[in-house]
Every structure is written in structure tokens, then in C-alpha cells.
Amino acid sequence: MDDKQSKTAFxxxxxxxxxxxxxxxxxxxxSMNILxxxxxxxxxxxxxxxxxxxxxxxxxxxxxxxxxxxxxGRILADADNxxxxxxxxxxxxxGNWYPLGSQSNPxxxxxxxxxxxxxxxxxxxxxxxxxxxxxxxxxEPPPPLGDYITPTPQS
Length: 155
What we know:
By secondary structure, this protein is an all-alpha fold. It has a two-stranded antiparallel sheet with strand order 1-2. The protein has helices at 3-18, 22-25, 34-46, 48-63, 68-77, 81-94, 111-115, 118-122, and strands at residues 96-97, 107-108. The radius of gyration is 16 Å and the shape is globular. The chain has one domain (3-147). This is Sorbitol dehydrogenase.
């Protein structure tokens, strides 16, 4: 898998794991270069071999015609790929890499990854000490949650 194919698979895997559309994870104008930051943090912390294995597993499941939810379920349930997938999900949400199978502290891969963490958007909040909003914006209703994620219907 070349670099372009790996990044395409990475975006698809990330979409499946987070439930956030790939087009939102990787906006057309990415001035903070979040895709590259998150991708590098993933490869550097999971290790190139583990990163390649989980991306190939994603491509295999996608090529079988499985949807995002089923792909995520199978990957997360896998003994080898599950911990990597969980750490990748946390990386997108929190901007931190949680080391696999250890109790050590998470690694902040960059201040921009933390600032752009999806947990803030989903919570309709902002990280302490940083906001793109103007003063007084709290008086306005937040954007609808559907702008960020598609809530799963309750059965």
C-alpha cells in the first residue's frame, strides 16, 4: 500500500471508528494540517507494522462490502487490532495517543491535535485556553450536533 492508499484507508478507518464523516475529519481547507498530524501520530505511536496491519484489515473488510459499523465492531473485537483502534479513536477525539496495554500517561501528539480534538466539537465546547469563537458567542445557540456526527437511532 503506497502513502496515498494508506491515507485513504486511514480516513476510512477513522470514519468507521469515530462515526464522523471522512469529509469532516479531513476538511478541504486544513490550515493546521490535522490529517498529517493525526496520521503521523498514529503511525509513530502504534508502530509502522501495526499501522499497516490495521489499515490492511480495514481495506479487506471494506472490500467485502461491510458497512462502517460492522467494520468498527470487527476491528475493535480483534485482539491485535482492537487496542490500536481504540487508541486511534481517542487520538481523533482527544488529540492524545493512549499507549497500548499500559497504564502510562497519554502522549499529546501536538497542541493543534488537542485543540482540534473532536470531543470539543461533539460536546459543543472548546478546550481550556483556546476558542475560535468571538466573545459573547455563548449567548447564541450552538450549531446542531448533526453538523458533526450522525446520532445513532435508538431502538
